[in-house]
């Protein structure tokens, strides 16, 4: 039986692991899906049993040893890879050695919704996965998907049609831009406490960046609600918990939306 604790010697800034206990019989006889989401600042790995995540981990540094440790306790026969950068060679080497079905997500993947993006080849795989996750939950409804991470993306899925979206700098990028493109402004951190209106330069930066981001998101939500009936607002991404606590609009925060979308696409293409 798998122990509920996994000893992972992985270099992490932030991680989460969710596990179920499996008998040896279950591992030998039930094959699972492996989902890889390789992002700009971190990589996420998830294992699915059907539609349920049974294990997941977020890695800041992603190397062969880490990858092998994470997947060593699971038997799977289908894998999906979503990457916004070049996929490390060791990933495909290890997966091909297992003889599993591998699907690399792209705009050419078979999808259950229509994409009207004029340059679909430039549409990020993470955005496609989030769209799929939203569509799987709420097919043929009007959905605004807000993915708050390195960048903040706003994608509009209207009755099963992706009509487009917008991209804005994330909170950390905004803070770093003020530091990098000025001579005297300090580098503030999202983890610092601040007061508004700011009575110090650091408070003024944090208040301006954080409140400006929240005002932006609130206005997107207001505009969407006014334009579309039967609407759903979904918030996801690395900064979603921080942002959700500060919004004055009701949204659904779904932290695993991208992983769930990737699993849905994998089954749809298998």
Short recap of the structure:
With 270 residues, the protein is of the alpha/beta class. Helices cover 34% and strands 25% of the residues. The protein folds into two domains: 24-104, ATPase, nucleotide binding domain (Nucleotidyltransferase, domain 5, 2-Layer Sandwich), CATH 3.30.420; 114-262, ATPase, nucleotide binding domain (Nucleotidyltransferase, domain 5).
The backbone outline, from C-alpha atoms, is: globular
Backbone CA Rg: 20 Å
CATH superfamily of the largest domain: ATPase, nucleotide binding domain
CATH topology assignment of the largest domain: Nucleotidyltransferase, domain 5
C-alpha end-to-end distance: 29 Å
Walk me through what this model shows.
By secondary structure, the protein is α/β, with parallel strands linked by helices. It contains eight helices and eleven strands. It has helices spanning 24-29, 64-71, 89-97, 125-137, 171-180, 201-227, 240-244, 257-269; strands spanning 32-38, 43-49, 52-59, 76-83, 101-104, 114-115, 142-148, 151-158, 161-169, 231-236, 252-253. It has a six-stranded mixed β-sheet, with helices on both faces. The protein has a five-stranded mixed β-sheet with strand order 3-2-1-4-5, with helices on one face. Strand 8 and strand 9 (161-169) form a beta hairpin. The protein starts with 23 loop residues before the first helix and ends with a helix.
């Amino acid at each position: 039986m798998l122990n509920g604790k996994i000893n992972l010697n992985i270099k992490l800034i932030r991680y989460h692991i969710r596990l179920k206990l499996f008998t040896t019989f279950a591992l030998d006889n039930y094959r699972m899906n492996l989902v890889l989401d390789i992002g700009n600042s971190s990589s996420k790995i998830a294992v699915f049993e059907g539609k349920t995540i049974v294990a997941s981990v977020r890695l800041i540094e992603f190397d062969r040893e880490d990858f092998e440790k994470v997947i060593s306790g699971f038997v799977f026969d289908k894998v999906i890879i979503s990457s916004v950068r070049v996929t490390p060679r060791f990933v495909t080497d290890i997966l091909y050695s297992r003889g599993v079905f591998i699907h690399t997500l792209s705009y050419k993947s078979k999808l259950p919704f229509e994409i009207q993006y004029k340059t679909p080849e430039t549409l990020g795989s993470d955005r496609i996965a989030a769209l799929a996750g939203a569509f799987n939950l709420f097919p043929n409804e009007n959905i605004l998907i807000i993915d708050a991470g390195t960048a903040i993306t706003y994608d509009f899925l209207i009755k099963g049609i992706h009509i487009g979206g917008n991209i804005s700098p994330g909170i950390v990028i905004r803070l770093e831009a003020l530091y990098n493109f000025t001579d005297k402004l300090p580098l503030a951190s999202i983890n610092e406490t601040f007061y508004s209106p700011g009575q110090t330069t650091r408070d003024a930066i944090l208040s301006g960046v954080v409140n400006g981001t929240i005002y932006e998101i609130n206005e997107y939500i207001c505009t969407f609600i006014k334009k579309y009936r039967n609407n759903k607002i979904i918030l996801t991404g690395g900064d979603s918990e921080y942002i959700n606590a500060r919004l004055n609009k009701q949204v659904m925060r779904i932290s695993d939306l991208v992983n769930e979308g990737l699993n849905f696409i994998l089954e749809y293409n298998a």
